[in-house]
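Researcher: Let's walk through a ligand-bound prediction step by step. First, I give you the protein sequence. Second, the SMILES string for zinc ion. Third, you return the three-dimensional complex as structure tokens. Ready?
Model: Ready.
Researcher: Here are steps one and two:
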Amino acid sequence: MKNSALLTLAAFTGLVSLSATAGASEPQWQKDKSYQLTILHTNDNHGRFWSNRHGEYGMAARKTLIDSIRAEVAAAGGQLLLLSGGDINTGVPESDLQDAEPDFKGMGMIGYDAMAIGNHEFDNELAVIRKQQSWVDFPFLAANIYDEKSGKRLFKPYQIFTKGDLRIAVMGLTTDDTKKLGNPEFMGNIAFTKPVDEAKALVPELQEKADVIIATTHMGHYQDAAFGINAPGDVTLARSVAGIDMIIGGHSQDPVCADAQGQMITKYKAGMACMPDTQNGTLIMQAHEWGKYVGRADLEFKNGELNLVSYQLIPVNLKKKVKNAEGKKVRVLIGDEIAEDAKLKAFLTPYQEQGQEQLQQKIGSVDGKLEGDRGVVRFQPTNMGHLIALAQMEKVGADLAVMNSGGIRDSIAEGEITYKDVLKVQPFANIVSFVELDGKELWDYLSVVASKPIDSGAFAQFAGVDLTITNGELKTASVNGQAIDAGKTYRMAINSYIASGGDKYPALNTHSGYVNSGFVDAEVLKDYIQNNSPLSASAHDKGNVIRN
Ligand SMILES: [Zn+2]
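Model: Step three, the predicted complex:
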């Protein structure tokens, strides 16, 4: 017994060391030689392959910028990697309706080396993700996503790039909130393990195989690791796992910027200087969202050490409003103008046209008018107000929802409904969010929003809650037929605009129970209409609010 156990153990360790030797290449870098390495990064593309109506961002201009940096780095004898922090999918109908084909193929043409998988990649079923992988020749990386049945990883955990004498490992990690945030239908047999555990297990292996270790993640940057009820993000990862040189992040959609003293800048504006957040010797970077910036880190590798030489967030044709000579507000470029790459622009144009055409197709129908006229929706509860709030509530599994009537910009007439109709109602692309509040917090919040005056955009619409409001004062409130209980926790859906204090609502986006689902409001409404048509206009009449 004892002997055979020993033998097995010996055979096992023998096997491990053998395979480790076989898999590991030897360091190629030369003593005292300095190597230049440039890492470029973007994250949270969210369907923004095309520039916006002010000519900001867009993949064609991004390509021009990246091509020029590539040429500069190559001329100086340096090496370059281009990485994405994930969430390529979801956010712009023209992209969503085509499974983000222009976005992925555009990334291929720009020459991305690898991407992290974001939670929004799972807004589609796995077969769509596999199709998206087939469109490009760079890897989708995730060390912590498994097939529950086979116990096998669904994606490559890491890739090792040989760049001149340097071996660079890039591992992918995805927020383990993905299952909580996304569509359960698409994630039945998929398990998301804890990124920190996977990284702890992988880093020693990567240290044998590579000179530089980068994590490209989609976990969010939460300052000082204050992640609230979100899953832990990049700061926790850096503090928990030694040996990661850089984290290229995404998900929280921040420009992650520290000042020269290392203090995080909370109100970063394009054009300001920006340094990565440094935690436990790990550089953490994130380039806001949508390709608004390309993050550029220039590093020096020497004698096994990697040091940051310079860092910048380069704005991609971002503009600011200034007053011109006549006192009129006009938009002017913040940085240098970046021309659009003609070849990529020509490639993307048919997708943009096709997407716009698809917006005209029928998505559902309604048997009466859904009331969103400004003169009505800002004065009384309406079926449109209730419908929008209900769609958001159901999307994030909330108990109730609050919607500001100022965010409702049009009605929908009886009959067929198109995506374009929905975009007229909700044109702002606010993000559906939720917050978990105790009963007292919820009562206090509802008291404030119930008191918002008529004829203002702040006038509130509700779903999932019965209210009595007398002269603007909240008298009764119940959820699921039960009066609000101070000791219970409630989940309330709201949009990102009011969450951040818009329409003078109490700000909740810094509450520890706040979660940004990442879903655009118009898409949430479109999905609800698609799944519930034909809609009954009267079923949504007024919701359950009594005002007297
Ligand atoms: Zn995300």
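Researcher: And what stands out?
Model: The first strand starts at residue 34 and ends at 42. The chain has two domains: 36-353, 362-547.
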